[in-house]
Structure formats: C-alpha cells, structure tokens
Amino acid sequence: MNKKSIQSLEEMKKLLEEEILHQSGNIVINLAGIPKVSKSNDIIGNCLQEWLPQWFQDNHLNLESNRYTQTFPDFIAHFDKEGKKDEMIDIKCWNYKNNPAFDIANFDSFYNVMYKNPSKIFAKYLTIGYEPIEHGFKIDYVGLHDLWEILGETKKYPLNVQVKRGRPYAIRPVNFVKNPKSAFKDSYKVLDAVKKFREKFPSDVVDYTPDEWLKKTKSYLDGNLNKECK
Amino acid sequence: MNKKSIQSLEEMKKLLEEEILHQSGNIVINLAGIPKVSKSNDIIGNCLQEWLPQWFQDNHLNLESNRYTQTFPDFIAHFDKEGKKDEMIDIKCWNYKNNPAFDIANFDSFYNVMYKNPSKIFAKYLTIGYEPIEHGFKIDYVGLHDLWEILGETKKYPLNVQVKRGRPYAIRPVNFVKNPKSAFKDSYKVLDAVKKFREKFPSDVVDYTPDEWLKKTKSYLDGNLNKECK
C-alpha cells in the first residue's frame, strides 16, 4: 500500500485503478452468531460509500465528511494541510450492468444550493461501477469526473431529471461510460440546462428568476474557470 | 434452533423474542482483502431486512418476496402449504434511539394500491429496533403489529405523512413503542384518516373521489374484518 499521502485527484484515481479496479469483495451481516451474505444493489452501493473513505484515510488522504449531510457533495478532500488544494468530492456507486442511475441531487435543492454557493459546479464525482457476483461483488469501473462530464439532456428535457407526477425529483447522470458524447461539453452547458429545466418546471418557493440564477452562477464560473482547467 | 416449521404470526414473534431480541451483530464489507465495519443506520436497516428473511427460511418459514417490489408489503408468509394461512408482512427496522421514522409507503401509491387491493389493510408489520454500538449493533426491540397499531395522526394532519413543498411523500409511523396511544384504534380509523388526508392534498391523477375510495375500502373491511379478529 502507498504510504505517501495522496497529493491530487490524479493520484487518487491512479490508486483506485491500481488497487481497487477488478478486485472483488463481499458484505456479511452477522446477527446472533449467524452470518448471511448481503448482496442487494442498495447495500453494495451504500457499503462501498462507507468503505472507500476509510480506505482513503488508510492511504493518508484526509477525506472530510460534509457536515451538512443534506446537501451535496459528501466529502472535501484535503490534498495539503493548508487547505489550498481542497476538492469537493462525491462518491457514487452503481451496478455496472445497468445504466448509472444514482441520484446526484434533488433538482430543487441543487438549484438553491448552486445559487447560494456556485463553487459547487466544480464538484468532482468519483464513480464506481460494481457487478454483483455469486457471493459478493467485483469492481468493474472506477472514474473521476467533473460534474459536466456526467450530466446531459434527455429526449424530453434539457437535463436528465427524474420527473414524477409532473414534479422534478432527482438529477440523474447520463450514460457517461458507454456514451460519453451524451454528456455536456462544459460547465456552462450544465448551467444553461439547469436554467432551461427550471423554466419548464417553475419553483414557487425561491425569490430569484431563472435568469437571475443563471447570471449569478455564470458570473462565478467566468471568474473561477481557471480552477477547472487542469 | 427450532426445527418445527412456524405455524402462525404468534410463533414468528415468539421465535424473534427468544433468539433475536437483545442479540448483537455486525456488518463487514471486504474489498481487495481489506475489511471495514459498516455502521450507518441505512446499512444496518437494509442488511437486517436481508438477514431476517434468510433466517426465517432457516427456521422453516416460507417467506416469499413480493414480486412487485414497488408496492407494499414486501413478503407473504405461507404458514401452511395450502396457502390458507398466508399473511402479508413487511419488515421495518429503525435506530431504536430515535423515533421510528421508516417509510411505510408513498402516500399516493398507498392510496392507489389500497383502492385496487383493499386486503392490504390487513398487512402485518414486523418492527425491529436496533441500537448502533461500537463495532456493530444490537437488537433492542422486536414487535409484530397490525397497520392501524403503528399509524396515527399528527398535530397538523389527519395522518402522519411527510409533506415536502406542499406535496405528500412517505407515510410514517407514529411512536407506537413509547406512545402506543398515539396510534389509531382500529383499521376503520386508518381508512378515515387516509380519506381526510387525501381531501387536504387532492390527487389530479386518479379517477375516483375520496368518498368513493372510502366506500370501497370500508366495504371490504366490513366483509372481512373477522380475519383481523384473531
């Protein structure tokens, strides 16, 4: 195991590729001395989301949980002690035999959070594809993406959002692994799509218009895009 | 372990009290040979919901999963081979240090399902309260309840339903353990409360009125209540 601390997103990805990709695992629940294997998708995904941060800690990466668990992203990676190289990171896992269908955020909260704190447009997504096997699972895919690399439009809407009974729910990724061209080209395209989607599904609880939303978030992007150009 | 097959809900509850209550357990995820303990509430609850049906099978109770995973309840317990003593059962787990806040069903789907299949008013709820401990959890509570024994009203609404942005989401239990008097008195009270709640939050997608809903479900109850009087 690498004893040197992880200094960047690239090193984080490299470690995942070297030590996690193609590895297998299992989940066992013991109760009253009787062990049973758990292998539903929900449990594998949730358990991986607990295992990975602990494993990164073992590898000397300080991955701090977001104190506000209701908002995204879940973690801040501190790549140096001074906090100059902090990165917002979410860990998302899905059954690699299916299209990625994890929730990125509730559309309404994404819209509000992004207005209050547009820096979240730079959140990174650590995406883990697993495959259930007879007594557990194996890791078929690891990726590290910008938000715009996993979001896209659908035939019906400017942004892939789960809509139930005429109301927006979770923002979902496009199939960024098998069809990366279906994703947006850059962060500006994400903002445009969010604004267009909001216009189709207006909110009655926020006191700013979609145009004001776009103006504020875009102006943040203009001023900070150098951070995204690695 | 009891080698005789379980013949009734009462025997099911007795076995839980004798062999599961006050026992402790843990959940371990292994990946690439590295074990980590998982102990978030979501994972404990979901894992228990996988462990318990397997353990009931070990104890010769045929607990069949509902093929329609999107509707409640999750299981059918076949207490005899002829299917004369089938019971609909849901397994719900929660952190016993908190109020029970598991989802019983989405209000809209509950409303629709109950209209199409009013027999679901007789579903039983196996409720398991666990407590996270340092390296796992222990079981502090086991109960087996009728639906009406865990549902109740709130100060604001005739039924305890999570309401977000003016829309109903999950039906939640009242605190049936610490305050059993807060629950409804019988199944009729559940139906009345659902109807009143629907009137407060009308649906634009169903083609029957709350009155028609109540008439149909109540008339089923009138004709079948003997099943509930054990």
The whole-angstrom Rg of chain A is 19 Å
Shape of chain A: globular
| Strand content bin of chain A | 25-35%
Tally of contiguous helical segments of chain A: 6
**Poorly predicted spans of chain A:** none
Tell me the distance between the termini of chain A. Answer: 27 Å
- Determine the most extensive contact between two protein chains: A-B, 34 and 34 residues
Q: Kindly name the structural category of chain A.
A: alpha+beta
SSE order of chain A, one letter for each helix or strand: HEEHEEEEHEEHEEHH
Number of DSSP strands of chain A? 10
Structural key phrases:
homodimer; 230 residues; 6 helices; globular
Would you give an account of this structure?
- The structure is a homodimer of 230-residue chains.
- The first copy, chain A, has 230 residues and is of the alpha+beta class.
- In chain A, 31% of the residues lie in helices and 27% in strands.
- Chain A contains six helices and ten strands; from the N terminus they run αββαββββαββαββαα.
- Chain A has helices spanning 9-19, 41-58, 107-116, 147-150, 187-200, 210-224; strands spanning 24-31, 34-37, 62-65, 75-78, 86-95, 105-106, 124-133, 136-146, 161-164, 167-171.
- Chain A has a seven-stranded mixed sheet, sandwiched between helices. Chain A has a three-stranded antiparallel sheet with strand order 6-10-9.
- In chain A, β1 and β2 (34-37) form a beta hairpin.
- In chain A, α5 (187-200) packs antiparallel against α6 (210-224).
- Chain A starts with 8 loop residues before the first helix and ends in a 6-residue tail after the last helix.
- The interface between A and B is medium-sized, with 34 and 34 residues.
- β1 (24-31) of chain A pairs antiparallel with β1 (24-31) of chain B.
